[in-house]
Amino acid sequence: MEKKVTDFKSCLKAMPDILVSCRNNEGRNNALAVGYACNCSYEPHMVMVGIVPSRYSYHMVKESGVFVVNLVNEELRETYAYLGSHSGRDEDKLEKLGMKLGEGVKVNAPLLLDCPVNIECTVVDSIRTGSHEMFVGKVEYIHAREELINDKGGINYNKVNLLKFR
User: Fold this and answer.
1) Nearest to 68 by CA among 130, 1, 154, 135
2) Rounded alpha-carbon distances, angstroms, from residue 10 to 5, 49, 78, 114
């Protein structure tokens, strides 16, 4: 007998758990946990992240036109959970967690240096899909820890130990 699925969030879960970092025009940094993210073009290289418009970071990305996708490894599970459950409206989450920040090479947004991979992006388009706005970001620069880069210049994801919520 077939049973009806009523929890849409569980129907397609081939997405990474990432952190998006951003900066507003006054220089305030923030990061949020994002569940909707994917590659959306290989040429030119583009990624897409979904952010709910009520989130504090949403307006930062809208006004600055840039963001950084930070891949999260298993060691950052608690950090990811905290950033996903607290708002930057109420506190400086990055300072509270003592996160190490770096500057983007191509975009004016912070890199979360505790993360093994950081992908700098410029917003080239967006679409409201209902609950989220999907920001399409052109990949401008990719940072990765040296030990993660293979002989061909790609990232060896077997060494990253990516966070995955079950």
Assistant:
1) 135
2) 9, 18, 22, 29
| Rounded Cα gap, residues 105 and 42, in angstroms | 21
Domain boundaries, the chain: 13-159
Q: What is the pTM of this model?
A: 0.91
Topology of domain 13-159, per CATH?
Pnp Oxidase; Chain A (2.30.110)
More confident residue, 153 or 11: 153
pLDDT in tens, 6-44: 665 555 555 678 999 999 999 999 999 998 899 999 999
Q: Do the beta carbons of residue 83 and residue 68 sit within 8 Å? A: no
Q: What is the pLDDT of residue 2?
A: 78
User: For residue 153, how many other CB atoms are within 10 A of its CB?
Assistant: 8
